Prior knowledge:
The chain is 20% helix and 37% strand. A 7-stranded antiparallel beta sheet has the order 1-7-6-5-4-3-2, with helices on one face. By secondary structure, it is an alpha+beta fold. The protein folds into 2 domains: 4-111, Alpha-D-Glucose-1,6-Bisphosphate, Chain A, domain 4 (2-Layer Sandwich); 112-143, no CATH class. Helix 1 packs across helix 2 (25-31). It has helices at 15-23, 25-31, 131-143; strands at 4-11, 35-38, 45-50, 53-63, 67-74, 83-91, 94-102.
Amino acid sequence: MVDILHRIGITSSSPDDVYAALTTLEGLSGWWARDTTGETEVGGVIAFRFGPGGFDMKVVELVPGKRVLWEVVDGPAEWIGTHVSFELRQEGDFTIVLFEHHVPLQHQVGHVPAQPQAAAGDRARCPGSDRREDQRLALSGRTGWRVN
């Protein structure tokens, strides 16, 4: 599994409206999984069910109108311990949503830890170096979005 990163522009909606769609059971069941239950406050767990399966997300961080961060605590084995975040901001007539499903390097298929003595310039040649991590960091520098 690799990181997933999407940038979405939403018209006719404010960051506060999008935040409500991400932080209430009514909002989440209205656009994602109809069968959504749980506690949407920090520390709570939200259960999303799709037919025979689903997953549970622990609410890690909420910054009204700006950020939502969840940790996958139950579901497919490769998802457990990964993080899902939504960053929100207004740009002109659009609410911009930066969605990220971050997979820690140790969860990525085929990951071999880099040698600790390798110099930064040697990343591309180190076993286990991850160009996706470099791209994520480069993206965060270009957009100003915080990358966890």
